Give the backbone structure.
Amino acid sequence: MSLSSYYAGDKIALTTSGAKQIKKEDNPYVFRMVENLCITAGIPEPKVYIIDSPALNAFATGRDPKHASIALTTGIIGALENEELEGVIAHELSHVQNYDIRVMTVVIVLVGLVSLLAQWFLHFGGGRRDSDSKGGNLFAIVAIVLMLLSPIIAELIKLAVSRKREYLADASGSLLTRYPEGLARALEKIQASTTPLATASTATAHLFISYPFKGKSVSGLFSTHPPI
């Protein structure tokens, strides 16, 4: 599963989100903007995808700049001015340039490893000999507590890392465009939008520039994104 996520996770995320790859002639406006920013950043051009949705959202995926893709909704392309859309694209390209998708893949694998270790610990504790029943019972209790708490703590760490990488992408994107106001205005418009992205799922929510499930409140600790 880890290998599939690393090598094919981008294709899975794009497919489940209903993203369709486009060519330059399909949308020259978006393509030129991506090309210009890639030249500025010194990274290869990613594949460009469009999601047919009125929601204002976008995401980037791919394990490195050579295998990257960027997806934009039709809603965000239509709603944002030139400098605003440029800020959003720069934010997403920064995720690629900063290897954020690779970082999050490693974090997710480690979170899964913590859960496996907790279960192994419980199994090991349950196999104690009767001659050491007191120690075995204590071991089993500690194992149960760790099995219950470890995945929760690991998940909180994963979400915290995700939020930090969003802040980093904001900073890197602003350096890339040299116009932070563009991204700031774009985020204000994204925040004002109440249209959810119907094709998003909890598995891909952390990829998007904005939490795709509008109207659903999420605790700060369990949020994949910092407040807009």
